[in-house]
Amino acid sequence: MTVLKTSMRNFLAHKGRMALSAVAVLLSVAFVCGTLVFTDTMGTTFDKLFAATSSDVTVSPKSAKTDEMPRNGVPESLPASVMELVREADGVKSVEGAVSSMSVTVVDDKNKNMGSTTGAPTIAGNWTRNDLRSMDISSGRAPRGPAEMMVDADTAEKHGLKLGDELRTVAVTGDFKARIVGITTFKVTNPGAAIVYFDTSTAQRELLGQSDRFTHITVAAENGYSDERVKENVARSLSGGYKIQTQQETTDENREGVGEFMNVMKYAMLGFAGIAFLVGIFLIINTFSMLVAQRTREIGLMRAIGSSRKQVNRSVLVEALLLGVIGSVLGVGAGVGLAVGLMKLMGLTGMELSTDDLTVAWTTPALGLLLGVVVTVLAAYLPARRAGKVSPMAALRDAGTPVDAKGGWIRAVVGLVLTGAGGFTLYLAGTADKATDGSLWLGLGVVLSLIGFVVIGPVLASGMVRVLGAILLRAFGPVGRMAERNALRNPRRTGATGAALMIGLALVACLSVVGSSMVTSATDELDKSVGADFIVTGNAGAPLKPATVKAVQDDASDLVHVSRVREVPADVTAPDGTKQEGQLLATDPTYIQDLRRETLSGTLADAYGDDAMSVGEEFAEKTGVEVGDTLTVAFDGGRTARLRVAAVTSDDTALDQGAMYTGIETVERYLPADRMPLESSVLATAKDGQEKAAYASLKAAVASDPTVRVMDQTDYKENLRDQIGQLLNMVYGLLALAIVVAVLGVVNTLALSVVERTREIGLMRAIGLSRRQLRRMIRLESVVIAVFGALLGLGLGLGWGATAHRLLALEGMKVLDIPWPTLVWVFLGSALVGLIAALVPAFRAGRMNVLNAIATD
């Protein structure tokens, strides 16, 4: 009980100093809990939607996949006659044929896309009784003819649509127009998809190209019959050949379709939360180390009157426990608020998430509290152990613990060993022959070198601060020298504070090098390898519609040739039995002019002859395949072919690395027309001197489909920079959390350092140091610590980035590009961070009463 009282007294006595550490715990826990609540809420939203839209039993084609866009643009379908067989099954109450397609684009009379801007699909289908499970007709009526349609209320509100407006639907099978006669409202939250409905015959004809087929059949069960029982009865009626699922199975399959995206986002955000926790550990260690140092006399007196080491140790750990509990409880609440904020932010981008679906599982606050408390107590363990070692004789000395010389040597040796091991594993990563092998060494090297730099930080601080002092501080005279000595007074503290900044900046530097190298390598490869002037693609990798390709071929002028590119799923088996699952690139023969590939043996042009193909260098080496050998190629949905190897291409490229080429005409012999994939892209080359006119004619030719992009090489490079830049900006935004926690660490270190030096500050003021000089001294000390951390971080990040580039080079991205302007701005920003972090501590130091400061013990 005495230990608890002592801990509570000390905690309350230093509550102002504990606040910043509590904020670090709060931010870290909030990020973890916010991530879990946000992703759980997304999961709940999708689960409710999938459950509401799924019938008791669903019958669909066996090869249908909910998470993949059909390669030929037309959804898998089954004959309408299946309905009669299903209707005869025992326990079936009603049966309906349904049509649903995501391979559509809906535009208004100004050719503006009415679909989602967040990547959510536009879904077109027929209106059925099953849709009443999830939607109500809130205005107008259901469509009854080929020129009528319904839209969902969210899409209508977003784009200002109303009854009577005419929209054009662009599908693989053609374009058609219809007027809005009804608006439907979701009974559950719609995450952002645009939904349009037609009558059944129109949906079959326009979306499937056939009038006697459906994409799936919905089955309602009789009362008293379970979904499982009805499924079994329907399966017996159909005798195989179809995918039959209960409502739960359909929901689970749909959830898997979005689960991968949600998991990537979830674990990425948790990873950044882990970085924030790691940075927070340094803040907590520094806080308790300094508090222990300031209470050396007090702890010595406690030992002198009978307190044991365990009691002193326990007293510090109880303070840490209190800090962890308070910070974690506040963090859990802040995490829920963060999740709501993320939901509102997603709403601004078009993805609707309702707070009615806010999901806070019991595991979320439990995990947040556990992490926050455990991390805080572990971080305080070393300072607590140090406090337990304070001898009663320390009560007779001034406050401040003596330097542990032995501990310093041990730290230096351990740090050097870890840093050396990290450097060696990074060397192994950089000299690896395969990127997959090198990535394992890279991950280990990053961890070891990071820990090594953290451990050896105090040793580095002693030397680097002197150098920085000579460069940055000597110009400020005696004030600069005092700032340097203050930073050197406790190298362990300076090293830990700088290490907190180092972690975030090292990641920023590494990612900047990787991103810049990827862009530079890709643009360099484009300049060397791409002969085409233009590339035509669909947004988000969607395949091009036949009408678009035809328009490029027939309507665009001033072109020398057009090359179609199709990604054809196929399994390739070598003579030795080695099987590779993947795809062939089926292209027009002119493709070899548009993308110049180095050929190691054979002639690539021969790969476009009858029953011929090319293979990549790695496949040829692995299987021993040579020019003239015959490969067995099983086309997905078609027949198996025997294709002759006409060429082996080099894998020393970032474009089409490892690709196997064949002609479109060859594939057409083995794949039926309804299984032939659509073009993934089209390349075009302009006549000499007519590039500008050809560019304009291409854009005009595809103008009717707003989802198609026409890019010249400059556009393509800019698009690549934008994509990588957006990704890096998002990562930098998440890393900002770690930087914020690190800044709090600098503030806390300086604030506690000012308290620790109260008497010294009073004496300096008494002998003539002005308030302005005192504040400048503290600001300069902060800048030196921040710059020290920045130099460590940038140096470490450059090493990581250069090693990562060596692995990228194995994938064809050979150009190492260090973004010096970005790194310079980061360095200058670190100095600014140091200035800002020192504002409050410097202000408080300047306001000290001189006499009271001198009288302080």
TrEMBL record:
Example of a GO MF term: transmembrane transporter activity
The answer to whether the entry has keyword Cell membrane is yes
What superkingdom does the record give?
Bacteria
Domain ABC3 transporter permease C-terminal: residue ranges: 272-392, 734-849
What does the UniProt entry say about where the protein is found? Cell membrane
For this UniProt record, the keywords arranged alphabetically read as follows: Cell membrane, Membrane, Transmembrane, Transmembrane helix
Keyword ATP-binding listed? The answer is: no
Annotated membrane topology is:
Multi-pass membrane protein
Domain named MacB-like periplasmic core is located at: 19-235, 497-695
Transmembrane ranges, per UniProt, are 267-293, 316-340, 360-382, 409-428, 440-473, 494-514, 730-755, 780-802, 822-843
Q: Which InterPro entries match?
A: ABC3_permease_C, MacB_PCD, Macrolide_Exporter_MacB
> Where is it found, in Gene Ontology cellular component terms?
plasma membrane
Q: Which family does it belong to?
A: Belongs to the ABC-4 integral membrane protein family.
The record's annotation in PANTHER family points to: ABC TRANSPORTER PERMEASE YTRF, MEMBRANE COMPONENT OF TRANSPORTER-RELATED
The protein's name: ABC transporter
Native source organism of the sequence? Streptomyces gancidicus BKS 13-15
The organism that produces this protein has a lineage beginning with: Bacteria, Bacillati, Actinomycetota, Actinomycetes, Kitasatosporales
